[in-house]
Amino acid sequence: MDHTLYIYNAMLWTMTVMAVMVFIALYFVKAGYGMFRTKAWGWSINNKVAWVMMEAPVFFVMTWMWVSQGATLAMPAFLALLLFQLHYFQRSFVFPLLMKGNSQMPVVIMLMGITFNVANGFLLGKGLFCFPPSCFNEGTAFFLRPQSLFGIAIFFLGMGINLHSDNVIRHLRKPGDTNHYLPAEGLYRYVTSANYFGELVEWIGFALFTTIPAAWVFVIWTAANLIPRAAAIHKRYREEFGNALGKRKRIIPFIY
After folding, report:
1. What is the pLDDT of residues 29-80, one digit of tens each?
2. Alpha carbons 136 and 8: distance in angstroms, whole number
3. What tens digit of pLDDT does each residue of 187-200 get?
4. First vs last C-alpha separation in the chain
5. How far apart are CA 176 and CA 189, in angstroms?
6. Residues 50-89 as b or e (16 or more Cβ within 10 Å = b)
């Protein structure tokens, strides 16, 4: 095996092990942003600024990875790049502008997010442009594969769920209101973290489409972060709203 590829695969395995550790840890320690932010997490800054600083690096890292490998327009790698950048352009530069209120994010959370995003962008970029799977050489035939078509469809389904769910949350409060409300539109009728469900579905679709191992490591990391978070939110809602929560699950409709 090529030495560079060996190191790359070792990095993927290291990230996978770290994701499992994070998954376990987050069932005991709530990441201190949003409704779980406390002074114990230290210095905080404006939430909108923090989101841009946390998410934007991966947009630029992925762009740099693409340019450094010749800025190829060859499919399907270029389409995978566009899908990834579509998500992170919205998450980095649109989502923060739509935020309401004056909430804050601990700097330590922001720095951890930056670290992960830079590493994730590097690994995905390597997987797409340096170590692409053999199926990327099939040309247009690649796009006729059921897995490719299904992956793209799942990606956009997840993105739609995520965007709609974020919109529902944004409109729960009127200006100046700081109370908590139970979202009940869309998939919030079935889970308390529909936005997280949408994001998880989105990246599963991306992994199905690209087939690269780094994309599946990203899915594992997404699940490791969002599933315990969804469980903590569900518990908080249960404490606040009691029976009004009904039979809603945490993040996966009808399952968990």
Report:
1. 887 776 777 777 889 999 999 999 999 999 999 999 999 988 888 899 999 9
2. 19
3. 999 999 999 999 99
4. 41
5. 26
6. bbbbbbbbbbebbbebbeeeeeeeeebbebbbebbbebbe
* Residue among 24, 42, 19 at smallest CA distance from 116: 19
Angle, helix 194-210 to helix 213-241, in steps of 10 degrees: 170
Judge contact between 236 and 195, C-beta under 8 A.
no
